[in-house]
Amino acid sequence: MRVTTANCETIRGLPPGPALPPLVQSLNWLYRPIPWMHSLSARYGDYVTVRAPGHAPMVFVSDPEAIQQVFAASADELHAGEGNAILLPLVGPSSLLLLDGSRHRRERKLLMPPFHGERMQAYADVMRQVTDQVAASWRARSKVTLLEQFQRITLDIILRAVFGLNEGAAMNDFRDLMRQTLQSVIRPAALLLVRGDGTMRGKSLLRLLGPFTPWNRFEALKAKVDARLYSEIRARRQQPIGGVDILSLLLSACDEKGKLMGDHELRDEMMTLVVAGHETTAVSLTWVVYLLLANPDALARARAELGKVVGNRAVTARDVPQLEYLDACIKESMRLQPVLPLVARVVRGGPYRLGPYELPEGTAITPCIYLTHRRPDLWSEPARFRPERFLDAKPPPHHFFPFGGGLRRCIGMAFAQFEMKIVLAQLLRRDMKLPNNYQGRMRRRGVTFAIEDGLPVAVA
Length: 460
What we know:
This protein is of the alpha+beta class and 460 residues long. The protein is 47% helix and 9% strand. The protein contains 20 helices and 13 strands. Strand 2 and strand 3 (58-61) form a beta hairpin. Helix 8 (124-136) packs antiparallel against helix 9 (146-161), helix 10 packs antiparallel against helix 12 and helix 15 (279-293) packs across helix 17 (324-336). The chain starts with 10 loop residues before the first strand and ends with a strand.
């Protein structure tokens, strides 16, 4: 039965949820998340408590009024950084994603300038050049797997726009090392090793097993990445201030007390930008192309707009605001197939009233992006790909939130959307075809929801 917030007495404690053992619930969440979410919603409604070993109780929420409340809550009541602790082994303790309170405000203020709209336009040439270089390699091939190609594109854009690296042996080595490191943590089982506070289970046993476990291979790769990052940071500190890449800008950024970011802070933020800006954007691009190829009318309209705005020349930063239908296609794809299924906040400072429930301190509140984006009371024909809905109206931020919401909305949102338009504008004019009777099915890749086989397409 669905519980609404109107005229409800306070219910002290957690909402109802499945009685399955926490490990069984975790396995459902990791290996069959879509049917699991639908079954929870059908049985328990807009509020449901789920459990996982080593984690605080998690309340999945798909009530838009409650989500609006969560996004408007103060940072003292709900801790978003604590809700992202599962990323600690990869991004590090100084990552913007993991910080709360004054440290988060300071770090976000330092990171904001490189993502300003005018600054981002300087990266348009890099985005287009990288896309063209990768697409040029398709000439000798009849088929490509698009997720792999988009991973190449987004990682190279990160290495050039964020780190300021150029083509050469150093970039090639760093690219390969970073790719291996990121690929080593996409297995869903890896998430079972991380507790809710970001610490590892069975560290002593993992050490005894040596290099033969996937996690220890990840640790070895991460150590090499760290050495490379710290070496780059130290070398750049010795150079004159300048450069338009994000690392150069952050090296000279200081807070209101005149304090610069330390090496450890820079390392963690660089890893955060790689993690947040590589895999998620590549997966998003794959879903957009799949949905356009599966909907020929929408593809034809997107190509007609590209022909009108861009013509036969290369896309530029000035073209991007005019690509309104392409923007709608990207947003509709993120509504229908969000790359991340939820965001998280942890209750601190005492009990917290959410809808009819008074939740105890330590509870993780997780607004569910996937379920909210498919509510029939918010979206007509929610299972259909209809980009026009984003031309007709702008949905409220608690109805549509693929990048999270409130003060913790993804700092790289504008960069990612700008990048996707540049990449798609260059590639959608090419001839690409899906295999016969192809259905794009979801598969979890670590924390992201991607197309199962990476989207194989015929190219010409």
